[in-house]
């Protein structure tokens, strides 16, 4: 049975031609090649989510699956088209559902690295949409990777060298942070019983 870290991918737009969806699939293939297990919530699945209503927060079957996957996730990849300088409503609605993780022992995206990918048809929106997703991830206590991948679909194809290189950097940073974090947690767990023992014998 696979035992690598679990990377949850979410994003893309509904429909078969989504560039951000294709980039998300590429990112998940790359982390799988590094030993990760993956779960994907593509545009079609995200479109099955109801609009999040904080006063009547029934997530529905896809929402339940999303929440359960994010609870178990060791890292995430979020891919969005740039819409009016920000992320799409589809992706934002999925992030809004994570509010239902507020009272978890590990709330929201706490402690998880998040790789962010933006596909949009202009350079300005590349920057502004990336910042918008980073801000949301920060608000959710996640750790955006230092490198975020932006693709200007008016000028770049997803197999351009620069895009492929950027994807390699993003996925390497995601896997490295996830491994460091797991090692830090193992070390903290190793130290905790020792401290308890000292306290008992004092
Ligand atoms: C509602 C909407 C808003 C958009 N707003 C912007 C924008 O502000 N700036 C921009 O460069 N492109 C904008 N675009 C273009 C998309 O970002 C671009 O087509 C992107 O590649 C779509 O990604 P997808 O193929 O994953 O759906 C917009 C497209 C739509 C449908």
Alpha-carbon distance between the two ends: 44 Å
Please state the structural category: alpha/beta
Number of domains: 1
Q: What coarse outline follows from CA principal-axis ratios?
A: globular
Per CATH, the architecture is: 3-Layer(aba) Sandwich
Rg result: 18 Å
Unreliable spans are: none
Descriptive terms for the model:
single chain; 202 residues; Rossmann fold; seven-stranded mixed β-sheet; 6 helices; 7 strands; 49% helix; globular
How does this structure look, described?
The chain is α/β, with parallel strands linked by helices and 202 residues long. It has a single domain, classed as Rossmann fold, CATH 3.40.50.360. Helix content is 49%, strand content 18%. Strands 1, 2, 3, 4, 5, 6 and 7 form a seven-stranded mixed sheet that branches. β5 (113-120), α5 (123-139) and β6 form a beta-alpha-beta unit. α1 (19-33) packs across α6 (161-201). Bound molecules: flavin mononucleotide.
